User: Fold this.
Amino acid sequence: MHVINVGHDVFKANDKLAEKNRKSLDKHGILAVNIMGAIGSGKTTLIEEAIKALKDKYRIAVIAGDVIAEMDASRFRKLDVPTVPANTGKECHLDAKLVEKALKEIDLKNTDLLIIENVGNLICPVDFKLGEHLRIVAVSVTEGDDIILKHPMIFKTAELAVINKIDLAAAVDVDPEKMVADIQALNPEVPILLTSKHSRESLDLWVGAIEAGLESR
Assistant:
């Protein structure tokens, strides 16, 4: 009996297409960041802050992944950056094919930074490479301080982790330091940022992490 591993074939095909996307981005000197996180983690606000801080210095485009709506895409367009909505329908993640399609709508020759906002989910996006250079996962203290250990794989594969909304930690009885320790236990090498939209210092660190990637291109 011959067993066909459908899952393996899907991932293999996606990885091949992701590599094609990556080569296209590299050809144009673009840094692509894939920002993952659950609904309500604050991904959109973090992206908005990065755009505001960097758009006068770098040419930015956004791929806004969502199941159906264009709400986040409209928020980015208000900041005067080219934005392509990537609706996934029933799927709970972006894949390399959707990104390839979106890239055709972006002027790559006039882009320095491509921000990809993935669908709000901490499980599905893990196995699907997009062609990105930097994988970022954001979580909020409002999700509970056990959120990391419940979703280990996304943190094991992350290249930057953000613990967001730390100004609310006391109100929701969560210890951000426990969250930091849990991430370090899963991925000792990953840089970790603690952020709040009410803390300019923390947002500067967030923007600085993105800009460091741009400067290394």
Notes: The longest strand covers residues 113-120. Strands lie at 31-37, 60-66, 83-87, 113-120, 134-140, 160-164, 192-194. The two ends are 49 Å apart (CA to CA).
